[in-house]
Fold this protein.
Amino acid sequence: MLLGVDVGGTFTDAVLLGDGVLATAKAPTTPEDQSLGVMAAVEAVLARAGREPRDVRAFAHGMTVATNALLEGRAARTALVATEGFTDVVELGRQARAQLYRLCAARPAPLVPPELRFPAPERMTPDGPLRALRTDDAAALAEDVAAAAPEAVAVVLLHAYRHPQHELAIRDALAAALPGAHVSLSHEVVGTFREYERAATTEIDAALSPLLDRYLRRLAERARAAGLPEPAIMQSSGGLADVASAAAHAARTVLSGPAGGAAGAAFAARAAGAVRALCLDMGGTSADVCVVYDGAVAESGTSEIAGRPIALPTLDVHTVGAGGGSIAWRDAGGALRVGPRSAGAVPGPACYGRGGAEPTVTDANLLLGRLPDEVQLAGGIVLDPTAAELAVGALAAELGLDLLACAAGIVRVANAEMTRALRVVTVERGIDPRDHALIAFGGAGPLHAVAIAEELGIERVIAPRSSGVLAALGLVVAPLRRDVQRSVLRSGATLTAAAVAADVAELSAAAREALGEPDASVAATYELRYRGQAFELAIPFAPDAPPATPQALRAAFEAAHEERYGYRDADEQIELVTVRVSATTAAPAPPDAATADGGPPAGTRLPGPAVVPLPESTLAIPRGWTGTVRADGAIDVRREPGGAAA
């Protein structure tokens, strides 16, 4: 059987799939050590399925260790080695304001303080060494770094993406002077140009890898002791990596949790036959949204987490602080606000009875009759309406509202936040959301989805039967994957079919070697721009397709440019900036089709208004909408002709 475990802000979800069985379970997340909650969820799902650890042949895991450390500013003691004169590149950044109209707002401070930044006496140009790094200089530099006793070192030298020999020499010197320290080399972590983004990403990789390594070692030991296979770890790109690879490069896992949800959403979209779909993953702390087209989630070559750039392939997921545990509050102007602060797993919403006293979205839904108060949740939690009434009532008194009006306002404000997030990934990018289906999942997603669909003019909502644990299901169906990228900067006479083929062949060999699968399927993505532009458009080509010709690249780029920006320029020269190759194994196929227990039987019609309990989740269907239960247990909710949500 296949096991997937996803750590959320409030609950840790587990899915066990195989032999015609789809078992699901939740356990409270344990922020002090996420591996404890993971093992509790595993025990719960094995017990529910009546299986033993020896029945599990693959174990996939999505977690928030690196994400939380980045958000909280926790990091290992890290040193930075950069080309002489460039040690402050992360602190200087792009000189862009963090917030346009708040001059006092600042970006987060670098993870490496000034006293731990060390200049390397070398200088590389795009064409080769200008000032060679001497062996004795590398050794002296390593001794200086060792004297500062860092736990990790980030090495970021100019143009190392093309000429890595100086970074390799410093790595060897550090290994002799500082054995046991983690070392991240920018050409291995990122491999592309743009000095600030490459340096910031490498700094993150070095600072978080020791923390992630300790967590993954604990988890692997606990899994081994329980008789489970070693877990594979979800990366931000939507593919799995072995424990050693994930621990060596924590920057590749900062979106591990949302990537599992996106993979699950793509799986659900394929199952529902939804060619165009929007995905809403609403958990306890946040809501993640993304676009699925033809069964695949869009990818991006860069992302930003907590104000820090990550120059690595990631699924294009947008996150807002609107979850079931998001706290409602009154701002200085007297307006009702929700999030981004969350009650989290501890103490959780007030209605969980674990010490929480502030009103949350979950408390509001309970008071509005959208959640059953007699059902026992994971960890023995039974929802307490009295506690919810006290928490929401205090805010209602502040705002001068009655209790139910305040609860309804909390839900509307949370919906507005998620609607805004969906507009960011659709309307703001030239995509019309009205011809998409909305796939709702996460513990709270189906409660809010239809109201959000009404706001966006969407007429179809899909709630998978396993929507409460769909991120864990996404882990189960994800393939193993490795990504290798390099800035090649080709244009004019250097942009030839032979040159592109050579780039793809070299990167494909590196990706397959990293994956350990010489026959793995590979797909290339080409980042292109018109000459003079500062940023590129990523143009993916199908897996195992021949390397693209310059003519094919131009045609695909101009079509994408016209779709995104509304015009094309047939006379302007194009530049191939970066080539990225992904090597993947085939995703594990479930041994047998399976449907989760619980929920209404196939064929059931569910006219609104209705509240429909699902395994690990609840679906709210307002007036003017009707749900139909499909054969796989998913509920297909459609707006009735002329109908409108109440």
Notes: The two ends are 43 Å apart (CA to CA). The mean pLDDT is 91.
